[in-house]
Each structure stands twice: as structure tokens, then as C-alpha cells.
Specification:
With 191 residues, the protein is of the alpha+beta class. 37% of the residues lie in helices and 28% in strands. The chain contains seven helices and nine strands. The strands form two sheets. A seven-stranded mixed sheet has the order 4-5-6-7-8-3-9, sandwiched between helices. It has a two-stranded antiparallel ribbon with strand order 1-2.
Length: 191
């Protein structure tokens, strides 16, 4: 199937995101409340994770195995990442918009975060782990990287208990659109 990357990026730039439903039909979704991961001092994580970080048992990579991260994110009982959406992510990756932020333990992929970068916005699509703490370490290291590179926002789309532990917070759509506009006028690189 042929996809228009510009149209897809335009949808994300307007605050929408793609998801597949139970029938694997792809659609654009929005939300009245959006979840952000703070890129300032409000970002936090459990003390037990600091011990894991101090052990340095994971290494971090960007796009070392993008397809494996997409597959890992889709590998759950109920997923919004249909084969068609996985194909779109791969096209976005090939055109420099989608990234996988990965943790590795030796040669084994431990976990990762899949996201889309537009200007100074990192739009987190999904995350997964194969080795305990793999995705948590990826989250901490990704926030460090986004800060270093001057990103304006880390959009996590929807709240869940896992994200709350990192200081995630919700904002209304009007606040989100204002912040997104600021982020889109920035030029940031993840790599």
C-alpha cells in the first residue's frame, strides 16, 4: 500500500496519532487530555531504578534495530500496532521521522521506546521490554537525550500508571496545541 508521508506527518503535527482498532482498521485519534513526560525537574523515577542505572548493565542505542523495537511494541495480547501501522512506522523511520531508543544487554535487545520526531517534539508511540528494567532505563536515558538536544516536549499521548511513576502529567488540548506549536517551530535532532 502507498502512504503519503507528508500527510501522515501533518496529522501528527496537528496533534493526532494513528492507531489500529480491534479489526486492524487504521484511524486518526485525538484526545481532550494529553499526557506529557516532563523534561524538567518534575521528571522522576523510583530509587530502585537508580541502583540499576548505577550498575550500568545496559547500553543505549538509537535505531540499532528499529524493526525489532516495533515488533516488541506490537507483541502484546491487545495491540494498536497493526501490520499496516508497523509498515507506516518503518516508512517514517526510512524518511527520518521515526526512531527507536533502545537498551541492550550485551547483544540482546532489553527494551525500547518507539517515537516520532517532528521539530522539537518527541511523540512516544509505544514502549516494551524483554529484560526487566530495559524500558525504564530507556525512558530515563531518552529524557536525558531530549534535554541535551533541546527538545520542547515529550508527548506520551495517554496516561497509564507506569508513566505516572516518571512524573507524567496531563494537559488539556488547548495547552497541548500551544506547546506543540512551539515545539514544531524548533529544530531538534535525536541523533
Amino acid at each position: 500500500m502507498q502512504y503519503d508521508i507528508d500527510t501522515i506527518i501533518q496529522g501528527y503535527a496537528q496533534g493526532y496519532f494513528l492507531m489500529a482498532d480491534d479489526n486492524n482498521s487504521l484511524g486518526w485519534y485525538g484526545s481532550r487530555d494529553r499526557t506529557l513526560i516532563p523534561l524538567d525537574e518534575r521528571f522522576r523515577y523510583p530509587k530502585s531504578l537508580q541502583r540499576v542505572l548505577n550498575q550500568e548493565k545496559f547500553t543505549v542505542a538509537i535505531n540499532r534495530d528499529f524493526p525489532a523495537v516495533v515488533a516488541g511494541c506490537a507483541n502484546r495480547e491487545t495491540t494498536w500496532i497493526s501490520p499496516e501501522l508497523a509498515e507506516i512506522y518503518y516508512l517514517l523511520y526510512q524518511t527520518g521521522y521515526a526512531y527507536s531508543f533502545e537498551t541492550w544487554q550485551g547483544d540482546e535487545l532489553a527494551g525500547g521506546i518507539l517515537g516520532i520526531v517532528i521539530g522539537g517534539a518527541f511523540i512516544g508511540e509505544s514502549m516494551f521490554y524483554q529484560i526487566p528494567d530495559g524500558s525504564k532505563v530507556a525512558m530515563v536515558k531518552l529524557v536525558e537525550r531530549l534535554r541535551q538536544q533541546g527538545f520542547v516536549m515529550f508527548d506520551a499521548q495517554m496516561m497509564n500508571p507506569h508513566l505516572e511513576r516518571f512524573g507524567a502529567y496531563s494537559i488539556n488540548d488547548q495547552e497541548y496545541q500551544t506547546l506543540l506549536e512551539t515545539a514544531l517551530s524548533s529544530s531538534c535532532n535525536l541523533i
